[in-house]
Amino acid sequence: MRRVTVPLDPPYDVVVGSGTFDQLGATLDDRCRVALVSQADVATQYAPAARTALAREGRAVERFEISDGEEAKTLPTVETLCRGFTRWGLRRGDAVVALGGGVVGDTAGFAAAVYHRGVALVQAPTSLLAMVDAAIGGKTAVNLPEGKNLVGAFHQPRAVVADVDTLASLPEEQYRSGLGEVAKYALLPEGTAVAALLATRTDAVLARDPETLTDLVAQCAAIKAAVVGADPEERTGVRAKLNYGHTLAHAIETTGQSAIPHGDAVAIGLVFAVNLARTLERVDDATVASTRALLDALGLPVTVPEDRRRDELLVVMGRDKKARGNLTFVLPGPDGVELVDDPPPALLERALGAVGVRG
Ligand SMILES: NC(=O)c1ccc[n+]([C@@H]2O[C@H](COP(=O)([O-])OP(=O)(O)OC[C@H]3O[C@@H](n4cnc5c(N)ncnc54)[C@H](O)[C@@H]3O)[C@@H](O)[C@H]2O)c1
Ligand SMILES: [Zn+2]
User: Are 153 and 244 in the same domain?
Assistant: First the structure.
């Protein structure tokens, strides 16, 4: 088992390993009531063990389920949860445990942030993406019909408890998507240990070996924890590096007809960003080649799906809320990963061409 501390006031731990559910109640009062929020598939497989672990000290535990997918991340779902909490008798001193992927974590986390003006929260992520990203840092939110994550709050959990054994049942597509986010960490200057692990234990990573996953998730969590500690509420530019690969990724996700998993879009975005950095002479050919090789080894896509149109991608990238210029990119370079505004159009075209987008 590995433990990563998120350096906030108060600090909290990300506990990673096999069979970590024993730790679910470690930061909660022995007598508190616990609303265990999950989703059908995840709940059937893992809620019984989570409930047993939480009830051991004599706590009352009640299960609440939300439906699957982005469509469940809404204010009506939060209202349904909060009404259920009230009917069951959840009070100010009680707790919410979010057991599931990022959708459960964001929705149950936001409910915990606003119910009785905030109750204790424990994040128990069960997807790779949630373990390395969504569950850490206290960002909670739901979607509006007008856009994603438009209503939310910062609500730090008491603890993040990641049981890597749960990843065994994660659908292949979701697992690969999580690896896209892992690849992002590997390509940051502070990600050399992640990159080395991915390079030397590729087969074990793809086979979801629990020991390897414990190391991998803990290393990624440590990078996220350090960034969150340096900029808890995204007021400075420190968190920008977590958006490496994400400018084009968001545009790929919001255009075209076919759905694409977030991490797949990030992988394509990373190839685009490193090529753009190359045309700007911020990195060398070897960096471009090693980025490609890493993503190929993990089975991640490296070209934009054919139904995405160049003009639409550019329009969406121009609307990026993090943009300072007309177009702002997060690019690697000699001083690490930084924001770069408005690259020359010809260079932008070359980088788009490198991921299969033609004018
Ligand atoms: N708060 C943040 O900082 C933050 C950061 C990144 C992403 N997010 C959010 O996270 C969400 C995406 O999270 P996600 O990728 O985990 O998607 P998800 O929560 O939709 O999970 C993907 C699918 O896998 C299933 N699943 C999860 N764990 C499983 C398991 N162990 N076994 C079998 N099935 C399992 C889920 O039920 C779901 O069907 C998005 O809404 C995104 O906005 C939030
Ligand atoms: Zn991401």
Answer: no
Q: What is the pLDDT of residue 236?
A: 83
Write down which residue in 108, 141, 170 finishes a domain. 170
Residue 104: name the closest of 50, 172, 26, 180 by CA: 50
Give the pLDDT of residue 322: 65
Residue 344: CB atoms within 10 Å = 10
Q: What is the mean pLDDT of residues 26-37?
A: 97
Given this model, what pLDDT does residue 9 score? 97
Which CATH number covers residue 348? 1.20.1090.10
Which of residues 170, 192, 211 is at a domain's end? Answer: 170
Tell me: pLDDT of 354 over 70. Answer: yes
Q: How far is the CA of 72 from the centre of ligand 2 (A)?
A: 19
Q: Do residues 223 and 115 share a domain? A: no
Cis peptide before 10 (omega within 30 of 0): yes
Do residues 97 and 124 lie in contact, with contact meaning Cβ atoms separated by under 8 Å?
A: yes
**Chain-wide mean pLDDT for the chain?**
96
Instruction: State mean pLDDT over 320-333.
Output: 83
CA distances from 6 to 26, 104, 260, 322 (A): 16, 21, 31, 24
Ligand 1 atom at shortest distance from the alpha carbon of 139:
1
pTM of the predicted structure, to 2 decimals: 0.97
Say if ligand 1 is within 6 A of residue 22 CB.
no
Ligand nearest the Cα of residue 102 is: 1
